[in-house]
């Protein structure tokens, strides 16, 4: 798994790391059951603090993208609770769509963007994934 951190970004490093791992799962670059590097190893590879990686792994665990195992370390284990996922997505979309409205982006333009972005992920063959 290749992780690239933009140290000039306004987005926190742990959020960038979380997002890249989620995108890696969605694009099947990393799959259910795959081990992620240890906190120390990933921190050394990227050149960031171990606590930052630990925070990202903790958030991904809380959000149901991975499990932490004492013997295996961080393992991709996507827990699917569709109702909670839809509720969380709705909450996140409210802010995104409010920004779109403030910038005079039409509903049709949003639909086109959603289709374009979703196509990047829906065409990927994922273990256990269905459309």
TrEMBL record:
<dbReference type="InterPro" id="IPR036390">
    <property type="entry name" value="WH_DNA-bd_sf"/>
</dbReference>
<keyword id="KW-0238">DNA-binding</keyword>
<feature type="domain" description="HTH gntR-type">
    <location>
        <begin position="11"/>
        <end position="79"/>
    </location>
</feature>
<keyword id="KW-0805">Transcription regulation</keyword>
<dbReference type="GO" id="GO:0003677">
    <property type="term" value="F:DNA binding"/>
</dbReference>
<dbReference type="GO" id="GO:0003700">
    <property type="term" value="F:DNA-binding transcription factor activity"/>
</dbReference>
<protein>
    <submittedName>
        <fullName>DNA-binding transcriptional regulator YhcF, GntR family</fullName>
    </submittedName>
</protein>
<dbReference type="Pfam" id="PF00392">
    <property type="entry name" value="GntR"/>
</dbReference>
<dbReference type="InterPro" id="IPR036388">
    <property type="entry name" value="WH-like_DNA-bd_sf"/>
</dbReference>
<keyword id="KW-0804">Transcription</keyword>
<dbReference type="InterPro" id="IPR000524">
    <property type="entry name" value="Tscrpt_reg_HTH_GntR"/>
</dbReference>
């Amino acid at each position: 798994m290749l992780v690239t951190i933009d140290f000039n970004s306004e987005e926190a490093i742990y959020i960038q790391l979380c997002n890249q791992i989620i995108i890696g799962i969605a694009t099947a670059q990393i799959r259910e059951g795959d081990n992620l590097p240890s906190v120390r190893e990933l921190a050394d590879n990227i050149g960031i603090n171990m606590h930052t990686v630990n925070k990202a792994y903790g958030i991904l665990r809380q959000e149901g993208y991975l499990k932490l195992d004492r013997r295996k370390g961080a393992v991709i284990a996507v827990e699917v609770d569709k109702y909670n996922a839809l509720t969380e997505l709705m909450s996140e979309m409210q802010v995104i769509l409010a920004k779109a409205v403030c910038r005079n982006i039409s509903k049709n333009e949003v639909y086109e963007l959603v289709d374009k972005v979703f196509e990047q992920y829906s065409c990927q063959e994922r273990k256990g994934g269905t459309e």
